[in-house]
Amino acid sequence: MKTILEALYRGQINPDEVIIPSQPEYRSVSRQVSAQTMQWRERLGEEAFRELEEYFDLCDRLDSMHVEAAFLHGFRLGANLLIEVMSNREELIPLKPQ
Question: Could you tell me the CA-to-CA distances from 6 to 11, 61, 71, 76, 82 in Å, in that order?
Answer without folding.
Answer: 9, 29, 20, 19, 21
